[in-house]
Amino acid sequence: MGRGRVQMKRIENKINRQVTFSKRKSGLVKKAHEISVLCDAEVALIIFSHRGKLFEYSTDSCMEKILERYESYCYSEGQLVSNNPNSQVNWTFDFAKQKAKLEMLQRNHRYYLGQDLETLSMKELQSLEQQIDTALKHIRSKKSQLLHESISELQKKERAMQEQNNMLTKKIREKEKAMAPAAQEVQWQKQNHQLVQAPAPPHDASNFFPPLALPALNPGSYEGVIPGEMRRNDLDLTLEPVYSCHLGCFTT
């Protein structure tokens, strides 16, 4: 039993629509690959799903090259059309086309800003939400990447500064260790210099005793005198006041 004819209309069932999209997309990509290989043709295929997801296929992965060739071809065709006597009509049509495109871009911009949403249906709102979610995912991914790169760069700078700090600390310690003997010798010389230049302590007047005056000895004055007589004369001189004191006491 053969497969029935498929009606060309929108599939209402969401699951069936998604399954059909996946199958038809794979078949379309397969056909594009076959025609590029069999016929040596440059093929570029661009598909946007109803959720706004992009699917593309290009010969030898040169999508940009094919698009540049397409734009160049369109520009050449436009130049040929401009040489036509009916160029005024073509310019008018091109102006209307560009104006409609500008209005569509401005309308989409307002939608992305959350303005003029009253005219959108539920399906259009869901599509807009999916597009915004996709854009937010790309933005957050790029933001996370930049933050990670910034943190990595700061960590590298921190490690470099730490290594430089350790190196400077090591050099300072080595220099202090080398200068320690010289500094100690200078300190000793300074202390010795202070001890040498220190003033003598002042004399205390209470502790000062004048030297005793000793009688001068004249050896020549005792010539011819008997030592015994010399001793007696000395005793008489010293004992005479004592005798006089005792005699006075007896008389009273």
From TrEMBL:
GO terms for MF: DNA-binding transcription factor activity; protein dimerization activity; RNA polymerase II transcription regulatory region sequence-specific DNA binding
MADS-box domain segment(s): 1-61
Coarse class of the protein's main subcellular location: nucleus
Subcellular compartments: Nucleus
Recorded coiled-coil stretches: 125-178
SUPFAM superfamilies cross-referenced by the UniProt entry: SRF-like
A cellular-component GO term for this protein: nucleus
Annotated keywords: Coiled coil, DNA-binding, Nucleus, Transcription, Transcription regulation
GO biological-process terms attached to the record: positive regulation of transcription by RNA polymerase II
Keyword Nucleus included in the entry's annotation: yes
Domain K-box stretches: 88-178
PANTHER family: SERUM RESPONSE FACTOR HOMOLOG
Protein name per Swiss-Prot or TrEMBL: MADS-box domain-containing protein
Native organism: Opuntia streptacantha
Lineage of origin: Eukaryota, Viridiplantae, Streptophyta, Embryophyta, Tracheophyta
